[in-house]
């Protein structure tokens, strides 16, 4: 993925218009969560890349909405988001794509902070609570994150 110390948001050609929504979330939350100057990279990836990341790093097939990759030596890490899945989930949840991108970006950032809903039910509840608090902090209704990941 990406390496460096700056916060960076990039997208494949078909998702360029979605970059500002993700950048807004990252710029507001990364300093709060990880401190000023913390580096996080976010990529909006096409279906083929997301499937490859899912296969190579999780040993699973198919698309997923968001993946996180912890960094090292002071670099927080990278997040990959599928615009295809984000658009579908936004439609299913009845909210704008920008709201779904905020939910997915927050989810990825919380994973980079060390929480993982797959570890235990208690950790899943804690992660959901943290995510809803962060969404509220950036002006997104916390309910946007409900009904996901078994919570």
* Number of E-state strands: 4
Q: Tell me the radius of gyration.
A: 14 Å
The rough form would be described as: globular
Q: How much strand content do the residues show? A: 5-15%
What is the count of helical runs? 5
Q: Unreliable segments (pLDDT under 50, ≥5 consecutive)?
A: 1-6
Largest sheet: 4 strands, mixed
Overall average pLDDT: 85
Spatial order of the strands in the main sheet?
Answer: 1-2-4-3
What is the N-to-C succession of helices and strands? Answer: EHEHEEHHH
Structure, briefly:
By secondary structure, the chain is of the alpha/beta class. The protein contains five helices and four strands, in the order βαβαββααα.
How would you characterize the overall build of this protein?
Strand 1, helix 1 and strand 2 form a beta-alpha-beta unit. The chain is globular, with a radius of gyration of 14 Å. The relative contact order is 0.15. Helices cover 48% and strands 15% of the residues. The termini are far apart. The chain is an alpha/beta fold and 151 residues long. The protein has helices spanning 19-34, 47-58, 83-93, 97-112, 121-137, and strands at residues 8-11, 39-44, 66-70, 75-81. The protein contains 5 helices and 4 strands, in the order E-H-E-H-E-E-H-H-H. The model is unreliable at 1-6 (pLDDT under 50).
Task: Record keyword descriptors for this entry.
151 residues; 5 helices; four-stranded mixed sheet; alpha/beta
Topology of helices and strands:
Blueprint: E1 8-11, H1 19-34, E2 39-44, H2 47-58, E3 66-70, E4 75-81, H3 83-93, H4 97-112, H5 121-137
Parallel strand pairs: 1-2, 2-4
Antiparallel strand pairs: 3-4
Helix pairs in contact: 1-4, 3-4, 4-5
